[in-house]
Amino acid sequence: MPLGGVGTLERYSAYPAVFDALEIPDIIDTDTQFGINEIEEMAAGNLDLDEAAVANLEPAFMLNCLNLAHLATISPTVGLHVDGQSLIQHQRRADGGTWSGSGHLLIKAMQGFLCPVSIEASQDSNQAARMNLKFWVEDNGTDLFLEILTDTLTSEDGPLISTMFRLAKTTVNGISVGGNQSTKIDFGIDYRVTRANGELVGRVGGIYNRRPVITIEPKNLQGFLAITGGSMVRLAGNVVCYFKKEGVANNVAEHISVTLTQPTGRIGNIAANANDDPRPAVIFRATRRSTIAVSTTATIA
Fold this sequence. Notes:
The protein is 3% helix and 52% strand. It is mainly beta. The longest helix is centred in the C-terminal third of the chain and has 8 residues, at 221-228.
């Protein structure tokens, strides 16, 4: 079906994303970034632009989802290289009803790399823990690197949230942190695509470095000041952050744990006011060649 013209009012909702054999039905939102890097040239003496062209393209899909157990498939250290069809889907809304039976918008890629960017969860939040994912689009040399289609939607079960997680405890050197209010995991995967010979879109890519970071905000000011001394220290033990699966007992091995082995620790800042307790931003960074480790079958003691 041909795409509509610019004079057409179109309304859509985000819809489950597909990365070859992996479907993510628990999508909260998506963001397709076309990554256009422009050449702009102006002759000396002119005030206005003379010529413009595309230097290169680095398209990417960003998405947030709720099921942290996708980390069993999308590695937190090496991601997931996808050689098949990947789809960011937009379900068309019907006039005077719910969803249209046709005219859905799909953005398709045939090769790329998917990895976790971050996980965030907060105490007393009315939102579940969220995981941010990024997919770098690559050119496989055969198909169009991106196709914009008006087509039928692809999904086994449709939109579905079957699993949610919430903030749980964090341990530092084996001791449970008192009063933690939020946890953010930055997986720190630096993935880059390579272009050559005038290519607009890269055909190959790779991980150039990994710098995972854990940031917590505990109501434990003196404790962390004592540990860090206002500077940076290397911990003798590990930092382990837990995320509790909703509706599952702590002793059931279905929760998520994220571990940094003997990281450095420091306080980024201490914000205080008359209406709340100080929350030092305590930052832990991997070192000594240790990478972040994730268990999707953890228990919470």
